[in-house]
Structures are given as structure tokens and as C-alpha cells.
Amino acid sequence: MLTVKNLTHWYGKSEKPLYENVNLSFESDKVYTIVGSSGSGKTTFLSFIAGLDKPQKGDIFLDGTNIKKLGATNYRKHKVAIVFQQYNLLTYMSALDNIMTALSVTDSEHKGEKQYALDALKNVGIEKSDAEKNVQKLSGGQQQRVAIIRAMLVDANIVIADEPTGNLDGENSKMIIKLFQDLAHAHHKTVIIVTHDPEIADHGDVKISLENCQFVVA
Ligand SMILES: Nc1ncnc2c1ncn2[C@@H]1O[C@H](COP(=O)(O)OP(=O)(O)OP(=O)(O)O)[C@@H](O)[C@H]1O
To answer: End-to-end CA distance of the chain, in Å?
Structure first.
């Protein structure tokens, strides 16, 4: 379980904090969607729970341990996987190698990695011939599926996504949300998605709105 305690943040000299005294918990096996107007601080919040940045005040705990104690690098490498709108794949590699690279960083003992990755890609409609092509030759929807499969296969229990369907059409978006649901419900991960897309937001198990500097759980 990921727990946010008394989180308060403001940027620079701004008088009004983005949010004040936020307390929230995120459990495994659930998809959380976070919505809120532009500039309300959604991406900033993700950067805190991803260990990419630190709030002015407050703490984040993973299964009871403050992430400060886990160490930022360890936390980012082993505990969280991040899926961005821009896919964030290594563009000079194939889809398969993007996944293999991530696996060997996080799980060097994994056996039969290549077949495992190929099977996972095939399950989301990416055949071996496409998996072995340079990833830039794949469509946007395919690249996002590769990014999600990568998040699925690394051993991180928390999956964080910032506008993961922002560049995709309706059909691809539906496939992506199914994959996130699968990550939570079949792979027992905690999935936290920031989205502007109301359809994606409604497919979460828990919907959270960031309004007037407060996170409101629907
Ligand atoms: N590094 C920074 N320094 C100063 N202000 C920042 C910084 N990063 C973000 N901000 C400001 O903080 C506010 C929240 O930004 P953030 O990107 O978290 O919002 P958001 O809800 O994700 O917005 P959007 O939906 O448009 O992506 C914005 O007003 C933004 O300009």
C-alpha cells in the first residue's frame, strides 16, 4: 500500500499552495484515476509518488516504510514503473529489446525472459515480427502497449501513468485501459493514472478529483 501523509506543496514564492495536508492511500489490485483542471497539480503529485521530486512538506510510505528510507534510486528502479504519454521507449531499440533492457535492470534472475516478453507482446496484438522492429516503426497505440507491457513485466508494484492515452484514438485507448485493469486485477499492482479523458477516468476502480487544492475521492 502506498500512503501519502500530510502532503503540502507550493512552488517558489506563490502564496497559495497547490494542495495542503493531503492524506491518501493507494491499495494494490486497484486502478485509481486522478482528474482535475489543467494546472491543478496532477503531474506534480505523480512526480512525488514516483520519487522524482520531493514535496515541500509531508511523507510518502510504501508498505509502512518512508520512501526516503528506501532511497530515491532504489525506489524509482525497483518499486515504481512509469508510463508517459510519450511512451518513453528507447527509440534506437526494438520493442523486445526495450523490455529485455528493463527486465535485466530489475530482475536479472528472470528465466526465459525473451519468450516471456514475446508472449506478453503477442497477448496485446504485437507479433514477433513487429516486436523485433525498431520501436519507432510501430504505431502510437502499439508503442504505448509496449510501454505498458514493460511496466507489467518489471517487478515494480506501483504503476504510475501520466495521460497514457493522450495521443491515442478511442479504439487504442480502450485497449490501454484494459491493460491497466489487467495490471491491477490480475498482476496485483497498484495503478495510478492521471487523465483528462472522462471515459478512462470512469474505468478506474477509484476516481479522485483534484479540486480547490484538495483530492476528493468519488
Ligand atoms: N517546476 C515548477 N516550478 C514552478 N511552477 C511549476 C513547476 N512545475 C509545475 N508548476 C506549476 O504548478 C502548477 C501545477 O502543474 P502540473 O503540471 O502539476 O499541473 P497538471 O494538473 O498536471 O496540469 P495539466 O493537466 O495541464 O498537465 C501549474 O501552475 C504549473 O505551472
So the answer is: 19
Residue of higher predicted confidence among 37 and 102: 37
Residue 85: CA count within 13 A, CB half-sphere: 12
> Cα–Cα–Cα angle for 66, 68, 74, nearest 5°?
105
- Asked whether 4 and 58 are in contact (CB, 8 A), the reply is yes
Name which residue sits closest to atom 26 of ligand 1, judged by CA: 38
ipTM field? 0.96
CB atoms within 10 A of CB 91: 11
Domain extent, residue 169, equals 2-217
Distance 168 CA to ligand 1 centre (A): 23
Closest by CA position to 55, among listed 65, 67, 64: 67
Q: Determine if ligand 1 sits within 6 Å of the CB of residue 115.
A: no
Domains: count for the chain = 1
User: Can you tell me the distance from the alpha carbon of 181 to that of 215, in angstroms, rounded to the nearest whole number?
Assistant: 22
Q: What is the pLDDT of residues 24-53, one digit of tens each?
A: 999 999 999 999 999 899 999 999 999 989
CATH number of the domain that 126 lies in?
A: 3.40.50.300
